[in-house]
Amino acid sequence: MLYREAGDFKTTYAADSQTFPIRSDRWRYFAVLAIAWGVIPFVIDDYWANAILVPFLIYSIAAIGLNILTGYCGQVSLGTGGFMAVGAYSVYKLMTMFPEVSIVVHVILAGGITALVGTAFGLPSLRIKGFYLAVATLAAQFFLVWLFNKVGWFYNYSASGQISAPERFVAGVAVTGANTAPWAQYLICLAFVTVCAIVARNLTRGSVGRKWMAIRDMDIAAEIIGVNPLTAKLSAFAVSSFFIGISGALFFAVYLGAVEVGEAFGIQKSFLVLFMCIIGGLGSIFGSFAGAAFLVLLPVALKVLGVDLLGWPSSTVAHLQLVAVGALIMFFLIKEPHGLAQLWRVTKEKLRLWPFPY
Amino acid sequence: MKDQVEPHVTADGRRIGGVLMDLRGITLRFGGVEAIKNISFDIREGEIRAIIGPNGAGKSSMLNVISGFYHPQDGEVWFRGAKRPAMKPFQVARLGIARTFQNIALFDGMSVLDNIMTGRLTHMKTGLLSQMVWAGPAAREEAENRAVVERIIDFLEIQAIRKTPVGRLPYGLKKRVELARALAAEPKLLLLDEPMAGMNVEEKEDMSRFILDVNDEFGTTIALIEHDMGVVMDLSDRVVVMDYGRKIGDGTPAEIRANQEVIDAYLGVAHD
Amino acid sequence: MSADFLYMIEVVINGLMAGVLYALVALGFVLIYKASGIFNYAQGVMALFGALTLVGIMEGQVPFAHIINATFGTDLHQFGWTVPALLAILLTVGVMILLAWMVHTFVFRHLVGQEPIILFMATIGLAYFLEGIGDLMWGSDIKTLDVGIPQGGSLWVENLSSGLGGEDFYGFFIDKLDITASVVAILLVAGLIAFAQYTKQGRAMRAVADDHQAALSVGISLNFIWVLVWSLAGMVALVAGIMWGAKSGVQFSLSLIALKALPVLMLGGFTSIPGAIVGGLIIGVGEKLFEYTIGPMIGGATENWFAYVLALLFLVFRPQGLFGERIIERV
User: Fold this and answer.
1) Using alpha carbons only, how large is chain C's radius of gyration in Å?
2) What is the pTM of this model?
3) Transmembrane residues, as ranges (chain C) (predicted)?
4) What is the pLDDT of residues C36-86, one digit of tens each?
5) Where are the domains of chain A?
6) Which of A103, A160, C46, C171 is 20 to 30 A (C-alpha) from C212?
7) C117 CB near a chain B CB, below 8 Å?
């Protein structure tokens, strides 16, 4: 009886609809938060921050964003890379135009700008569905990357065509620029992740989330029971793009520091985030974290295994990674379309009954 | 002109009021095919109104016109004493018209509770920002609407399956959940498209009981399509009969039983 | 006729030639989509994979050489022979059929009856997988493919047309390769139509496209038909791969160019072979003309996105495509 719900009675509807209705889940959640905030910042080093934790946190935000659109509202988007670029270039322009304003404000504003752009590109979703829409979002991907590449105003006419983040401080500590400590990078990302995850959870458990899911499961029936498809779909695009914009802003300003748009935000990025959602679990906030963790760790693990242990050339390992990711996507879609999150749920169901098989 | 029945109280004590919905000269075409030909009838407050007819008679199309999913080329829909302009289905829902579907249209990825909660969406007003924070209005609204939904869950006797994903439910229960979702909207007019299709006798009895109870306890006006004649004649106050898109009969069950044209349509007399 | 106008015509003709190749890839999509409802995102990567395999076989490369060498400490690269183009093409066709069988047996047979969007995402996975396998087998360096197709500007066309536009105009410059590609594409389409119309398998294929259940009930093996269409799509992809490969080298960008087949299908509709062809030509001509006229004003390289934006705008106003049927929604 490692994991049980017996004796955990609910007396109000609010208690019944809380995020972690089962007590041991709740404890685990607080333990994770405590470790993330109280332990990791003191032990983190440069390798862990740059190779694993910071990209994990940033991709988690992007995956949550795409999961809201694709997993909850059922609208597949292949424009994630383009929208992340909007976040990155917005935060760059804001940072250079208003250096006195806090970077935190800039990142949130960048999310807001991305939300506007995402909503505009979401308009066709009112007329077209499924993979028609998926291909239509490719227009956003290619057009936005082209735009940031060609129009000098966006990169302040820098000779290299790159943008690079100037140094900015939060409470006197550098969080962007070359002199940023790993723990500062980590903490600012963690702060955004925590808030984003809570907001996403709140949205998906209430009436807004139900509208999205109704549209996803059966759009015609949703409309007939009173869901306005226009506002439901566009709000999903807006919220999703808001998160993706924040992740793009952090990806550029905090993680990479300097980016070239085609390289950092190309179509591969769109697929990467989509894969995180599929492998982690469509329609699950926890799945977004799981998927992001999995796809951040996979290359690291393959590199350790292939390059360091077996001595293969790193290009071969990179190709092997493509094979592995592709195979995993097909495997999950065949065996477990709800991804790691569902595997986790099944495990918990089993634990609940443990040690009895039924 | 149609007969003007005054509001009255039925033998079993239910109050039938004035005209709630009036359909005037509805004509609906798909390309060259006329699915509904110049049909008029009304639905009164508090009554159970049945629409019957052979397959392909245009009954479901009629329901789709009422719920705003199809837009008739001709004719007017009057609701609560005012002509209803051309509306999108979700706007119709907000007027207080809820429905169930012939082929169950539940949201398979959601639990029974969430499905029924979607029926409350037209009553839930808090915005995106308030829901992001969750504390305050959004949480309060959620709890209030949950209470309404729980009453319906009790009423339809589906407490035990509250948290089950609807995809896993058997057919009969799905139909019941769909009724619950429509009821959750607290509609002024409830449309039921073949609520008993594919059910066995016990399930039909349960469903009939629920329909009568809904009508009786909440005073909800109901328009339903059904193929089981016994059920229709027992449940409904008045019946409209359609055949090949035309109206061939309209009246109380007793009148319909005696209507020669209706008998012909059902026994399959050749059309000239 | 003024020279400007004639150059415009040249742009249009070159656009048509590019459009033929888009149409060729789009054709592969249509084949699979009609028979199985799968929207095969991997079609472009299949073209890349086909071309890579062809080059590998022709040059006698050792497959998976990098892994073998790294694991066993060997230094294998070449078998030391070369294979004539025609034989290599036949062998590659064999590989594509094997690939079709594997894709069906190991992946899509297990996904029958899933929602279209799930199938679509599975094909994205397939695209990654194939790209990785292609690179592992044959290496990821850019390869030149020469199967003996004539290349370079066609002097005949140039000389014939040079008198048209006065002194400033030197005649149309049209690559012989493009002419060959167009001819091959036309032959291929004609062959496919003949196959679908006049052979038993072709009829079975059309029956499956029409109605799975009905096809099953008259004794058609769905599995066989699905492997068949994947094989045909593989061969079409190979042809497209050869043409693109001969033109600009066999490299990853080939699969991105092939992505353009997606907007082509948006225009032409997913189920229509004429639609795929007309859509391909419209996109080919449209993007070349746009780049020629508007491109210089807004910084160029508009070919990257023009096709997608055009398809998007088009879809918003006519969601079913040029030739698709209007869908009446029911509840």
Assistant:
1) 21
2) 0.89
3) 6-31, 38-58, 78-99, 111-130, 179-199, 220-244, 264-285, 297-317
4) 888 888 888 998 999 999 999 988 888 888 778 877 777 777 777 788 888
5) 40-264
6) C46
7) no
